[in-house]
Specification:
Structural class: alpha+beta
Oligomer: single chain
Keywords: Transcription, Transcription regulation
Organism: Microbacterium flavum
Number of strands: 4
Protein name: RNA polymerase-binding protein RbpA
Shape: elongated
Order of helices and strands: HEEEEHH
Strand order of the largest sheet: 2-1-4-3
Subunit structure: Forms a complex with the RNAP catalytic core and with free principal sigma factors.
Largest sheet: 4 strands, antiparallel
Radius of gyration: 30 Å
Family: Belongs to the RNA polymerase-binding protein RbpA family.
């Protein structure tokens, strides 16, 4: 007779005297609804005995990836995204050489003051 593994004949892995109630599948739970800015509702379940302060006010919505809050009328706002900037727009924002030198001198002066070498 060929047997495999270490299991005792006639048993299943995880089988035993404990039922689903002992595993927590039928524990008392509280449903909490969260809404994101697009109006998607997400329901999360928490243990009935948990304090209200321990239930998070904001979660990430699995539907949209946006923040979702417990207040249906005032959900968290959409994240503001900046429009794409071209390389030329970044070049225009660069500092002049004089501004860069002034910033470097100021930073070095502050560092020397902190070290006591001024």
């Amino acid at each position: 007779m060929a047997t495999g593994g270490n299991a005792i004949r006639g048993t299943r892995v995880g089988a035993g005297p404990m039922g689903e109630q002992d595993h927590g599948h039928h524990a008392d739970r509280v449903a909490v609804s969260y809404w994101d800015a697009l109006g998607n509702e997400t329901v999360r379940y928490f243990a009935a005995g948990i304090a209200d302060e321990e239930i998070p006010e904001v979660i990430d919505s699995p539907h949209s990836g946006l923040p979702a809050g417990r207040d249906k009328e005032n959900p968290p706002a959409l994240a503001k995204t900046e429009p794409y900037k071209t390389h030329l727009a970044y070049v225009k924002e660069r500092r002049t050489e004089e501004e860069a030198d002034a910033l470097l001198d100021d930073a070095l002066h502050q560092l020397r003051e902190r070290r006591g070498q001024a």
